[in-house]
Amino acid sequence: MDAHNRYVALVTGATGGLGTAICKQLAADGYRVVATYKTWEKAEKWRLQMQESGLQFDMYQADVADFEGVGKMIQAIEQEVGGIDVLVNCAGLTQDGQFRKMTFERWDAVIKVNLYGVFNCCRHVINPMIERGYGRIINISSISAQKGQFGEVNYAAAKAGIHGLTKTLALEVARKGITVNTISPGYIATDMVLAIPEEVRNKRILPEIPVGRFGGTDEIAALVSFLASPNSSFITGANYAINGGQHMY
């Protein structure tokens, strides 16, 4: 654990259910965790909740879809906190709807946050990582990208694009001490999933999951922890499906 003390981990979408679990796990591993947020009101409430749990994170604001804004944020983190050794791209957005009714605005918003957001963050951290000769990038995709999901053409396209980016970037920096990997969760017990009507969850979704339950955010965080560690240096360009057996390939 002490070996991680010099490492800084940046987590986007930190105030969501999955982001929170990842921040907590990386903090427990000994990383100095930097949490990003988009709106201060939600972030301040989250900060106070974390503080009550005995956790304190460095917090920086940026809209991940804004290339220049992300650049300014990462520059500030590098100067004020230290070089970013681990990047976890967890920020996400859904605006579901059947393709025949999909507006350009919904398509555009989801692509910008989920795919451009990953590009923007990776682009601004990659050169400093190359200069230091070390880095771990972990991109959160989705089962929707692997099997498709009714009403999620925008989300599935963006999340599939993430792994294309992951594989190519992994190739380009493989000899630089940097690994780049994707995690594709299935149905995880986040507020977003639990907001689905109970009847739909229990009668339509659960029967499709062979292990018979939703995943835990802590299970995703444990995989992030492993991929973020120096011990995972021979794993790059991989896509880890963590979905309870709902989609196997």
Account of the protein in words:
The chain is an alpha/beta fold. The chain has a single domain (2-238), classed as NAD(P)-binding Rossmann-like Domain (Rossmann fold), CATH 3.40.50.720. It has 9 helices and 7 strands; from the N terminus they run βαβαβαβαβααβαααβ. It has helices at 17-28, 40-52, 67-80, 104-132, 143-147, 153-173, 191-194, 198-205, 217-228, and strands spanning 8-11, 32-37, 58-61, 86-89, 135-140, 178-185, 239-242. The protein has a 7-stranded parallel β-sheet, with helices on both faces. α1 packs across α9 (217-228), α3 (67-80) runs parallel beside α4 (104-132) and α4 runs parallel beside α6 (153-173). The protein is globular, with a radius of gyration of 17 Å. The termini are far apart.
Keywords:
249 residues; alpha/beta; Rossmann fold; 7-stranded parallel β-sheet; 7 strands; globular
CATH class (first level) name: Alpha Beta
The name of the CATH superfamily reads NAD(P)-binding Rossmann-like Domain
Task: Using the alpha-carbon principal axes, give the shape.
Answer: globular
Average pLDDT score: 94
Order of helices and strands: EHEHEHEHEHHEHHHE
Number of helical stretches of at least 4 residues: 9
CATH topology: Rossmann fold
Radius of gyration: 17 Å
Structural class: alpha/beta
Q: How many domains is the backbone divided into?
A: 1
Q: In what order do the strands lie side by side in the largest sheet?
A: 3-2-1-4-5-6-7
Per DSSP E runs of 2 or more residues, the count of β-strands stands at 7
Low-pLDDT segments: 1-5
The main pleated sheet reads as: 7 strands, parallel
As a percent range, the share of helical residues equals 40-55%
- The N- to C-terminal Cα distance equals 35 Å
